[in-house]
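BUG-234 | component: ligand-complex export | severity: low

The export step for S-adenosylmethionine jobs runs without errors, but we want the raw record kept on the ticket for reference. Input record follows.
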Amino acid sequence: MKNQYDTPEFFAEYAQMSRSLFGLEGAGEWSQLEPMFPELVGKTVLDLGCGYGWHCAYAARKGAAFVLGIDQSELMIREAQRRNAASGVTYHICALEDYAYPSEHYDLVISNLVLHYIADLDWVYRKVFITLKPDGVFLFNIEHPTFTAGVRQEFSPDGTWPVTDYYYPGERKTNFLGHTVSKQHHTLTQIIMGLIHAGFQIEALEEAMPPVKWREQMPEEMKRPMMLLIRAKK
Ligand SMILES: C[S@@+](CC[C@H](N)C(=O)[O-])C[C@H]1O[C@@H](n2cnc3c(N)ncnc32)[C@H](O)[C@@H]1O
């Protein structure tokens, strides 16, 4: 199936988001995600669903020796090459389901806001576990189950956030950037216990809150968590 990000209208809408205009500093989760990164000097890094490549360029700036960013979307990879080319960083058009995951190759696997597009989270966990070196880190940000559970990912007319059908994981046709986008709801148990069953140790967990300086402009973002940030070690 075609990746939504390769639809020109959707791609154009995504380009207007704060995270697209201003990079990591424009991303609401960055102030919580950045401190979760491990030491990067000399490290090998894989970014699953790298998008514009902000995290790849960040890893290179912090001294990573080799960084590979893969993304299923040709338009996103083109944008990564245009905006975030850096020494030691390579970008490939590749679905994360199609990547070869070389055994014990990476010190860090990162994936920011991608895994809620993937139905079989356990499969990804197994692949990431294989491709990490011993003590390697898996750092990811997935849409929070409270956010993904409901019907169209929209507030109700009375201003509340509907959490419903929570115990029915699977596809949700959501409204994202004015388009119907297919995402996958995973329960908190699936997200956390899946990691533990795959062999990971969970080292840190954060629920993204808007930074203090943004809260007045974004009161709705204080009503429910939108993202779940997890750092797990092999
Ligand atoms: C919200 S964007 C996040 C991009 C980037 N990680 C960031 O934080 O700036 C989601 C990305 O996931 C990619 N994506 C979705 N499904 C994918 C898959 N199965 N394999 C690889 N990339 C995928 C999309 O093409 C898109 O670039």
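Assignee comment: Attached the raw record above. Residues 130 and 215 are 40 Å apart (CA to CA).
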